[in-house]
Amino acid sequence: MEDEYKSAKYYDKFLHLFVWRIRKKVLEIVIRNKYKTILDVCCGTGNQLKLLKKHGVDGTGVDLSKAMLVIAEFGKIKVKCHEQDAENITFNNESFDMTMTTFALHEKSNSSAKKIINEMIRLTKKNGHLIIVDFSINSNTSLLARKGIVFIESRAGDDHYEHYKEYVAYNGLNNLLEGLPLKEIEKYYFAFNGVVLKVLQKQK
Ligand SMILES: C[S@@+](CC[C@H](N)C(=O)[O-])C[C@H]1O[C@@H](n2cnc3c(N)ncnc32)[C@H](O)[C@@H]1O
Predict the structure, then answer these.
(1) From ligand 1's centre to the CA of 98, what distance in Å?
(2) 3-class SS at 46?
(3) Is-contact 203 130, C-beta < 8 A?
(4) Residue 88 to residues 57, 116, 117, 182: CA-CA distances in angstroms?
């Protein structure tokens, strides 16, 4: 796979203003639920895992981009991330109290995104949690959020943008999560209703 994230060293700085509230919300949920084993699927630069580690919570990640993984293992706080395909992760079934993925599903084709979520379900313990953060574009989304997201996505590369448009056309996470053995237990909106964070419990 061609590494789309060659400019990984600018990634966190560029997105900081947009994501910091969301990262803090994930931290709050993690601390409240006292998860012991955490997997960040498509962890990118490990930015979320680093925030967790700063607050004493360890987690591990998987990502396919070497450029992103280098950043994860660099700096004052380093996190362990594995170079692995999120559609076919090598960890054993039900290894984690919580699996999460943030801002990754919208850039995948519908079938890829579904495979990734199924891997997360496989890897999560019974009654464990999945945290999914991604765009949510509907009638409640402000025009500012819509325009801002399209601006970012249209500059992220052709495949990326085509998949984003497909994600929106297919009703985003609602479609991806339909019919899966997951119960939504918490939901939060961010960025003028352009982003949703869902906490889901694995049902069987
Ligand atoms: C938009 S970035 C999000 C990164 C991070 N989760 C965050 O919140 O900043 C999407 C990430 O998904 C990774 N990715 C895409 N397809 C993947 C796959 N099949 N397996 C593993 N990682 C993948 C990319 O390399 C990239 O780091």
Answers:
(1) 18
(2) coil
(3) no
(4) 25, 8, 11, 20
Q: Is the CB of 46 under 6 A from ligand 1?
A: no
Q: Which atom of ligand 1 is nearest to the CA of 47?
A: 9
Q: How far is the CA of 134 from the centre of ligand 1 (A)?
A: 12
pLDDT digits (tens, 9 = 90+) for 151-191: 989 988 888 899 999 999 999 999 999 999 999 999 999 99
Whether 52 lines ligand 1, by a CB cut-off of 6 Å, is no
For ligand 1, say whether the CB of 103 is within 6 Å of any of its atoms.
Answer: yes
Confidence of residue 7 (pLDDT cuts 50, 70, 90): low
Domains in the chain, CATH or no CATH each: 8-202 (3.40.50.150)
Q: How far is the CA of 27 from the centre of ligand 1 (A)?
A: 19
11-45 pLDDT, tens digit each? 677 677 779 999 999 999 999 999 999 999 999 99
Residue 196 CA to ligand 1 centre (angstroms): 17
CB-ligand 1 contact for 43 (6 Å cutoff): yes
The model's pTM is 0.95
Average pLDDT score over residue span 60-80: 94
Exposure string (b/e) for 122-155, b if CB count within 10 Å is 16 or more? ebbbeebbbbbbbbbbeeebeeebbeebeebbee
